[in-house]
Design brief:
single chain, alpha/beta, Alpha/beta knot, Trp Operon Repressor, Chain A, 2 domains, 8 helices, binds ligand 9WO
Length: 232
């Protein structure tokens, strides 16, 4: 069974959105497991402190290396084979390729920091993959941890049906998604493109491909360049 462990000071945030729909059903069916490890339970002072003022001064608080270190040690127990992942805007941008690699492995241990950040010695003592979801700052690493886990779990065998897996392949062609339509055929004076009602599967396929190309060229020159280079 694929296993996710998340280190957080807010274990009540879990399973949260992972407990519903596709990922929630897969969790109930035992296709994967989730443990939220409460970092605060590894605090040893009477106030159960997990943070302290930054050495060198400056605003905010920093997550303590000793407390987080003990939490990581505990989370690794019986899970020595799981890669450690730090969710941070300083990390390598997450890609579908990395998601696939993680989904094919035994699971992951995600470290979800809070405050201004975590003591840098933690990453030295417990090396892992620093992963970013994008160039923005959140209030903590929990939502990125959930996002990463969601991306992995939907790829696990048996989680989604054949139809959706084909969708996956189409994304992995390197293009953005083509637009989707369903009933009603007319809505707010807007029609469904005629070709989709034609029943000509080859025309439908060609139209969707052209749409995916156009939208990728307009919105994501970076993806478009890579796609074009791959097609030379
Ligand atoms: C971990 C870490 C590792 C190396 C260098 C800096 C680091 N910061 C953290 C960390 O855990 N930061 C916390 C999480 C504290 C501040 C808010 N945090 C956070 C994570 N905000 N935004 C993210 C995030 C994560 C992934 N992708 C986009 C944003």
């Amino acid at each position: 069974m694929w296993r996710a462990r998340v280190l957080t000071i807010f274990p009540d945030m879990f399973p949260g959105p992972l407990g519903v729909s596709l990922t929630g059903q897969a969790l109930t069916r035992g296709l994967w497991s989730l443990d939220a490890v409460d970092i605060r339970s590894f605090a040893e002072d009477k106030h159960a402190s997990v943070d302290d003022v930054p050495f060198g001064g400056g605003p905010g608080m920093v997550m303590r290396a000793d407390v987080l270190g003990r939490a990581i040690e505990a989370a690794r127990e019986g899970a020595e084979d799981l890669p450690l992942v730090y969710l941070t805007p300083r990390g390598k941008p997450l890609t579908q390729e990395r998601v696939r690699d993680l989904a094919e492995g035994p699971g992951l241990i995600a470290v979800a920091g809070r405050f201004e950040g975590i003591d840098a010695r933690v990453m030295e003592a417990y090396p892992g993959n620093e992963v970013s979801l994008g160039d923005f700052v959140l209030s903590g690493g929990e939502l990125p941890a959930m996002t990463l886990i969601d991306a992995c779990v939907r790829l696990l065998p048996g989680v989604i049906g054949a139809e959706e897996s084909l969708q996956e392949e189409s994304f992995e062609s390197g293009l953005l998604e083509y637009p989707h339509y369903t009933r009603p055929r007319q809505w707010h004076g807007l029609d469904v493109p005629e070709v989709l009602l034609s029943g000509h599967h080859e025309n439908v396929r060609a139209w969707r491909h052209a749409q995916a190309e156009e939208i990728t060229r307009e919105r994501r020159p970076d993806l478009w360049e890579r796609y074009e280079r791959g097609n030379i």
